Amino acid sequence: MKKNKFQWGASTMLIIYGLLFFLMFFRIFYIQVTGQVEGQQLAAKAAARYEKKKTITADRGNILDRNGKIIAEDAVTYRLAATVNPDASKGSKKPIHVVDPRRTAAVLAKYIPMDEEEIYERLLKKYTAAHKPLWQVEFGNAGSNINHATMQKIQKEHLPGIILMEDKKRFYPNGVFASNLVGFARKEDNEKAPVGKMGLESIYNKELSGVDGNVQYKSDLFGYLLPNSKKMIQPAKDGENVYLTIDRTIQNFLEASMTKVYEKYKPESMMAVVANPKTGEILAVSQRPTFNPQTGAGLNNSWINSLTETTLEPGSTMKTFTLATAIEEGKWNPNDKFQSGQYKVYDRTIRDANQVGWGTITYLEGIQRSSNVGMANLLKKIGDKTFINYLGKFGFGQKTGIDLPNEATGKILDEYPINRVTTTYGQGSTVTPIQLIQGLTAIANNGKMMQPYVINKIVDPNTGKVIQQHEPVVKGKPISAATAKKVRDTLGTTVTSKKGTAQNFASKEYEVSGKTGTAQIPRPTGGYYWGKNSFLYSFLGMAPKKNPKLIMYIAIKKPQLGMTEVGSEPTSEVFNTVMGSSLKYLNIKPSKMKTEKPVIVGQYVGGSSKTASKELKSQGMEPVQIGGDGEVLEQYPQDGSSLLGKNHVFLKTDGNNIKIPNFKGWSLRDILAYQSISGIKIHTSGDGFGAKQSIKPGTIYEGNAKLTVTLKKPEDEYN
């Protein structure tokens, strides 16, 4: 009986285990065939656990000037983090979590802009908002954008648990530099890399961003590479480099001048642009208020690019195109006369700036004095429809097609006869600064009007291939070359004539041609502001007059002028500085060349140093006295030498006190001549002309003092 029971029990157990084995076998077979467990792909689960992928971040492309000088680039920075969970140090010989929060906070407070107590509280955090154990903490903006030098200092403190992770930031080495054109890129909290937020950084964000790469490999649970696994590398494709037409040197001239005038006259706003009339390339552009893309200072007050996105009533600069129309149509006779002061159009009276005019004057004098009545009379000769048609040919009332978005069109008023009259002198109708520049290219470029542009080329840094190359585009020929020359000559007299409104724009070296503007500013509620400090003052000009190499527009809104100051003073301060410096930088020969007669150096040895100095100054020379007043013992150059221009003549006297001269601008030859005749040892470095010196000019020389003069080339001085 017992035996039967045992056999029955054994059989039952065998059947049960047999069924379990069969079910297990079937399950394994099913998994092998389908690769699924409870609807989940095992291969995918394994891949998720063992296959790792690491992103290789692409570098954002650079923005460069026409000569390849950096305007915007990626820079390596560091981000601070702290490991606060003690579990991180398990199995490690050295602690890799923050062991002493108080000391760590005190040290970090020396390097990041965060209060020590705030750092300490952050290091004490143990749990997330969801009450899960916290592994690592960061320090927000205070712990971001740490430079390399600061990173090294923090590392030398050897703080356990402190991590410095490499990061990228957009870097703008020039600070305020065509900021409203270039814009800026920034990395927000949820972004892996800087993203263009404004300007060219935003417009060309796709081209500049590039494509991230990755490294894919198999590893164990601890991250170690598994045997026989292969790394698969997809390299990053760096963003494309965008070369602008901007010239960094000319842009720096403009920025410096704009800042100086903005601080001096405190206007409501300013804008200026410099262009090449032969090609339409924008060489410099700036506005105030503006912002610093590196620090973000001023960003809240300056989001619009005034060059293309704002419209204005141009004032008398519009007379440039009224004059061009009259000459092209054969309606201009500079010696014809008209009665200035007032002009009636139906129920409206047009008045000149001084209300009463200057009596009966010629049309040439009318242009020189910027007479509104002269323009109204000229319109009668031209014809309303013809005038409006020419404004269209010059590109007003339509987009220029510049390679920038959001370009405004302005509006040429043509509904009533009075609109056409006021448009001849730039009131009522509106234009953009870039339209004025485009129109002026026709006058500066012998009738050919060039489309303005700011992108020179786009280059793939990965291959060196030029993706996009911008070539000059002729938009039309609204006037003939002969007309363009007459306009330049006529507007040149506004600068040279004693009756001209542009006398402040005269240059000692270059002939300037252009037209001033004083425009009333519309009130939001209707009508216009009035008063000396309530106008828009501007100048649309070019140089050299005969063959302009540069054109420029400068507009200043509501400058705070002194009692005796006029609107052309702040505008000319910007124009004269930028135009003169830029033409010299471009090696444009002065158009006002004087033929100088050679000066024969007299015999000064044995005579009085005072008498010799006086005579040399009267001849245009620069006497350099070595020693105190007294008898001249030695001179250089010798008597009978022939000199051209403003040269140094060295006079050594019997006096002992030698004052160190100002060596700025001296040639190496003159420095060596001074050394020879004075006996003072001079150490020189560099090439070119004197730029810096180790002993201040006017200092009495002591025999043991070391005198060093640093030389620089003219182009280096400009750069």
Automatic annotation (TrEMBL):
<dbReference type="GO" id="GO:0008658">
    <property type="term" value="F:penicillin binding"/>
</dbReference>
<dbReference type="Pfam" id="PF03717">
    <property type="entry name" value="PBP_dimer"/>
</dbReference>
<keyword id="KW-0812">Transmembrane</keyword>
<dbReference type="InterPro" id="IPR005311">
    <property type="entry name" value="PBP_dimer"/>
</dbReference>
<dbReference type="InterPro" id="IPR012338">
    <property type="entry name" value="Beta-lactam/transpept-like"/>
</dbReference>
<feature type="transmembrane region" description="Helical">
    <location>
        <begin position="12"/>
        <end position="30"/>
    </location>
</feature>
<feature type="domain" description="PASTA">
    <location>
        <begin position="656"/>
        <end position="713"/>
    </location>
</feature>
<dbReference type="InterPro" id="IPR036138">
    <property type="entry name" value="PBP_dimer_sf"/>
</dbReference>
<dbReference type="GO" id="GO:0005886">
    <property type="term" value="C:plasma membrane"/>
</dbReference>
<keyword id="KW-0472">Membrane</keyword>
<dbReference type="InterPro" id="IPR001460">
    <property type="entry name" value="PCN-bd_Tpept"/>
</dbReference>
<dbReference type="Pfam" id="PF00905">
    <property type="entry name" value="Transpeptidase"/>
</dbReference>
<protein>
    <submittedName>
        <fullName>Penicillin-binding protein</fullName>
    </submittedName>
</protein>
<keyword id="KW-1133">Transmembrane helix</keyword>
<dbReference type="GO" id="GO:0071555">
    <property type="term" value="P:cell wall organization"/>
</dbReference>
<feature type="domain" description="PASTA">
    <location>
        <begin position="595"/>
        <end position="655"/>
    </location>
</feature>
<dbReference type="InterPro" id="IPR005543">
    <property type="entry name" value="PASTA_dom"/>
</dbReference>
<comment type="similarity">
    <text>Belongs to the transpeptidase family.</text>
</comment>
<dbReference type="InterPro" id="IPR050515">
    <property type="entry name" value="Beta-lactam/transpept"/>
</dbReference>
